[in-house]
Give the backbone structure.
Amino acid sequence: DAGVIQSPRHEVTEMGQEVTLRCKPISGHDYLFWYRQTMMRGLELLIYFNNNVPIDDSGMPEDRFSAKMPNASFSTLKIQPSEPRDSAVYFCASSLSGGSKDEQYFGPGTRLTVT
Amino acid sequence: AQTVTQSQPEMSVQEAETVTLSCTYDTSESDYYLFWYKQPPSRQMILVIRQEAYKQQNATENRFSVNFQKAAKSFSLKISDSQLGDAAMYFCAYSRQRDDKIIFGKGTRLHILP
């Protein structure tokens, strides 16, 4: 398997623009997690899905952020409108079952820069 | 709320030496999991080692081992015979047994000196 795939690897955009980050989990994994990593706050869980259904979105910072998982092989994280404070590395991870029972496999991350 | 604290933002160790990274956590649960993840410069997060709280025996993976002190809520990572490829950010993490999500510490950046 190719592992968790994220695109793009780097994104530079201007404040106010819409940004869409994409993730393809490992085939057969039922759980998908979106994280954000910054120097100040470390690695934060934004939202996670089980069988394509959002289970916990309490980490989503505000209404400008939204995430979808239309099918088992694809998820998106959208920021609209983007702001400079959204600049971070965004990771997608997937696991066979819940994060404590099975290893979470991380993608390479998307580095987002909002100017 | 559960928290994970890594008190050492950065550490350095000479190649071939042994280094220990510290981690403490706060929880009222009795059943949980603890993890150490490695993030090299490539950014890819990789699971290094995992410990189940009900197991008294410390987990070991080759040169990596942990010192799990449940009463003290301490979970340190020991790297023996440090290699240049061990240079990375190391994250300690916690998850309740009945939970799906993992809580990460802020990380410790480890430098390996040749």
